[in-house]
Amino acid sequence: MDAGNSIHSNIHRYYGESNPATQENFKGSKNLGYLNSAQALADYAEILIHIKEKNNAVESPIIVIGGSYGGMLAYWFRLKYPHIALGALASSAPILYFDDIMRQNKITSAISQIFKEASNKCYETIKQSWSEIDAAASRDRGLTKLSNTFKTCSELRHSSELKNYLESLYMKAAQSGQPVVQRMCESIDETPNQGEDGTLNKIFAGVVAALSDDTKCYVNPSSSLAFKWQRCSEILMPKRHGRSETMFEAVPPNQMELMTKECQSLYSVTPRPHWLTTYYGGHNMKLILKSFGSNIIFSNGLKDPFRHGGVLEDISTTIHAVTIKDGGHCEDIFPNAGTDSQWLATVTRDEYKIIQKWITQYDTDRKSSSD
Asked: Which InterPro entries match (predicted)?
């Protein structure tokens, strides 16, 4: 990094140790009303202005960087606060994965294919498990027994709570790369299918294999509650997986009605499926950004299933798409231990050159305006 530059990392409100809402308080909107992306962006704006003033660097340019949800925040910050951020690097940001902008089963089909390539037997077990979870939940004290089987951090209130967790876990495993998926599938395949809950025991073995050895409980740890709220209140990613083409549960025609019922039960909040695209945009994005946007890099690894929700082509001379042939999720900013250092160096060098051009142009414009 060049001399004179500095890096600052900020934690999203409600996600850090200073979380104002305990698990008990995560049951309603009273303590959660300020947990949303817009408030988080406003936090970042206040913090960055304070840092610049404190360090006598009011005219110093800022580049915001983030990956996945953080990548979406970086992109949104550049849109909403162009007077604070000169540019943004949005790594693996699925900004098109909302409303009806893209065919929703593209991502789940890609994830399913990764699992199928690892083990067709594992793929079929996962595909079968959704109905078995519902069947187990419908039995006498079914949710209690499911909670025991999956060693949940607190007792399940709906079977959908477990299914949403598993969907998220499979997605994260596919993002992390083939070794994690392989480890999960080996555990699923090797666990005996015995008794009434044989399939569920196999699925739980896969859960354990995917996570660290020091994990004490699963499914609903307090650390996951913040995003569950956001999933209900604003970050609503539609599901349209078909039973024949993915390993995920088939989505019923009344999925929005069911999700509304669940979110009302958990948090007394009604999902807003069109809010993000109303507030940040998304439809006709190429046309809109070409008209007013600038200084954004969208980077995506082509082995990442979530690339289907990202920007894969340049939009203008200052809005760039960087694609990484063998890259995974956020691998340009959070490289794995096995990341190929040669292509990583090439990609980061290209990103650096683009950002340096923004800064050079900014310095030129600043000097000319002061003359």
From this structure: AB_hydrolase_fold, Peptidase_S28, Ser_carbopepase_S28_SKS
Distance in Å from the first CA to the final CA of the chain: 30
Number of residues written out for the chain: 371
Residues acting as catalytic residues: 68, 304, 329
* CA dist., res. 247 & res. 128, Å (int): 8
Number of domains observed in the structure of the chain: 2
| φ, ψ for residue 10, nearest 5 deg | -115, 140
Strand ranges (E), 285-333: 296-301, 319-324
The pLDDT of residue 12 is above 70: yes
Tell me 63's DSSP state. Answer: E
Residues 207 and 311 in one domain: no
Say if residues 324 and 334 touch (Cβ distance below 8 Å). no
Average pLDDT over residues 119-142: 95
Q: By the 8 A CB rule, do 154 and 220 touch?
A: yes
Instruction: Say if 273 falls within a structural domain.
Output: no
| Domain of residue 352, CATH code | 3.40.50.1820
Find the domain containing 196 and state its range: 105-221
Retrieve residue 91's tokens. 């790594």
DSSP run (H or E) holding 90: strand 87-91
What is the residue type of 291? S
C-beta separation of 87 from 297 below 8 A: yes
Whether residue 214 sits in one domain with residue 142:
yes
* 143 in Cβ contact with 156 (< 8 Å): yes
Within a 10 A sphere around the Cβ of 17, how many other Cβ atoms? 5
Give the tens place of pLDDT for each residue, 71-80: 999 999 999 9
